[in-house]
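Sample 1 of the test manifest.
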Amino acid sequence: MKEVESFKLDHTKVKAPYVRAAGVLTRDGVSISKFDLRLTQPNKEFMTSPALHTLEHLLATFMREELPGDIVIDLSPMGCRTGFYLIVWGEPTTEDVALALKRSLLRIGSVTTVPATTEVECGNYISHSLDEAKTVARNVLSRGISTDPFDRTRVV
Ligand SMILES: [Zn+2]
């Protein structure tokens, strides 16, 4: 079986919330970086499907706006419902990404509508909760986002 980088992370040792640089791929001089945006503590707490889904819609929009240079390729939910994967062009620092996530979560506090929640635009358009998404965002902001999964002294 091919080894998957994130399966080697010891999920019992990490301290959420954090942003983790999960790897850089470079081919023909072009780099693509992957980050974990871990919002809740693995195996202790996880988001509901509606909260995760609404955060996905909001972060897909806000992270594109908050990371300069139109570098976002993809932002997708983790199947364990504890966070998101972010894939971008280039090699932004973990701090750049953590600060963009912080600004995005702050913006969620004043959101009144969720983008793309019609049957035409979304694959499960009734499964959304802005209230629960706001609660997750608030909890992450109150704990602070670390730029190191193992070190809570590195909160942005
Ligand atoms: Zn959707």
